[in-house]
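User: Please check token order:
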Amino acid sequence: MQDRVLTLLEPRDFDLGPKPAGDGPYKHWKLTRDVDNVAWAVVDKAGASANTLDDAVLVELDQILDRLEADRPAGLVIRSAKASGFIAGADVSQFRGATDVSEVEQRMARAHAITDRLEAVTFPTVAVIHGYALGGGLEVALACHSRIAVEGAKFGFPEVQLGLHPGLGGTARFTRLIDPLQAMQFMLTGKSIPARKAKALGLIDVIVPERHVRAAVRAAVKGELKHDQPSILDRLKDSGPARRIAARRMREEAAKQAPGEHYPAPGALIDLWERHGGDFEAMKAAEIGSFARLMVSQTAQNLIRVFFLREKLKGLAGGKSAIKRVHVIGAGAMGGDIAAWCAWSGLTVTLTDVKAEPIGGAIKRAAALYGKIGRDDRLKVRDALDRLIPDLKGQGARLADLVIEAAPEKVDLKKSLYAKLETVMKPGAILATNTSSIPLETLREGLQRPERLVGLHFFNPVSRMQLVEVVRHDGLDAEVETAARAFTGAIDRLPAPAKSAPGFIVNRALTPYLAEALVMLDEGVSKETIDKAAEDFGMPMGPIELADQVGLDICLAVADMLKRELGWAIPDTPQWLRDKVEQKKLGKKTGEGLYVWKEGEPVKAHDAPKPDPDMADRLILPLVNTAAALLGEGVSEDPDVVDAAMIFGAGFAPFRGGPLHYARRRGVSEVKARLEELAGKYGERFKPAAGWSKLEG
């Protein structure tokens, strides 16, 4: 009896309909029928951890429809056998390098024909969705007559993040199904839609626990599920005059988030809806050409590249992490936020500092963060706060699998901490430093176990910046580096391996960019003009604003260290910057730096002169040149890792695909010639680095 009760309490497997008798004729699908003559088409893409749509998956769906039309079932259920979710969207790898608009149009027209056919069948069709239904996956679900969400499911159209808009009929089906203004908002932002919100919108028909899937399917097939119909007001919003008014506002909002010249997808989607909204067939037909033109654009191709850069770094995380307990030393902005993020990721974390006040402040920030990112899951918020343990006496170091030092950038201070830690850390524990620039060869001096010291350099704000530089020195135990990468992946961060060298990858490349901005300030150029030059290039913020965000004290320390260690030709730090640091005018964190900050935003003049043509190259090419130098010196041997680090750690304009990719697109010889020209005009700091030879040929 007890065994039976325990069995009933175990999580149920997915209800995938009857078990197939054998492998069947399909590689990516299983097709069965239940006792009610309902067909179950279960997608399980071969050799993949998640379902994505490609030509092979869609062709097999077409073949399934052939078979079902020849022997009509009572209904059709489409769901996924993957634990991760329904369908994660299109397999964008099939479009990498696309240059021919007509070829993309033909492929999309073939795909449209299949989803149109799914929508047109005369028997009821039901999409059962667990996990996620994104992009093309959601478009398949929209072509079904009913949609059942398993509790916890999420939906969305993230195509805008790849420089695209939905291309499998989704623009027409989504704006027809729900309030078109809300549909456009979700497509323009790429935001995910939790199940309850999706139900309220009318995107799905019902939310059920897994154990009730079969009953919900029966109700859907019998036509017993209530479908929320668009209201008269929703339809009025799709009228021509209403679309023109709304489209104007949408363009204004889109321009604030992403300039149209760099990110054309939002404008293309707005144009599509303004011209064809309310005419279902016309909008579907126009969607194909609009999608194809976006797909062959440099923006989309570079953003697809960024997608695969992310996947590459995820792969570098390797296998499962064995780290369960983390001890963080330093409860300042970085240390406190590292501790908070580790606790949110399921680890037990102890947080220490020399005083109680910073620890209290870190716990308060963590509670605010958890309340924001976990508002739909109060239990997770509670559990994360329980795992984040104040530890004024530092006792947690004795039990920790990983100790992360996030103390101020002072070598002697860090070494004194290490000396005490090594006497209490358990033998297999890892010691990591969050130093932003100090070479590990310096920090390992005097350690009893230097082979267990690794760099884990996080970026601010920790909860939003995805990159962690995993820094190795020549004496590092390979198993420690492997464990550090796995830990990074376990907390949902992207590891960028780097050899220990002053500034590592990101700060090394950012410093000449920031330094040149200070030179321009000394030349009398307004800070707003300097920032505008970088923003016009595509940077998310200019170097002056970035310096304030990072903190002028940190910028000064890094610049001084790099100039000292590398003998760089960058100009000396101006005295006025040292004075600001001395006066504690450090930027955003103190309310004043290079800008005055109010309510978290810099106060900028709106009448600053426009940038001159030289400014963007003066700012960006030193960064690009340093990225090449990193290759030449072996700080990283992979141009993709350098590009990924600068995108995910420094926000380098994603639509350009990374600084080294940008240089290759522009032409290495042209970039080097331009650097020589700038060197003649402004100084030796612009001389091309030796590392360019790694990118030539």
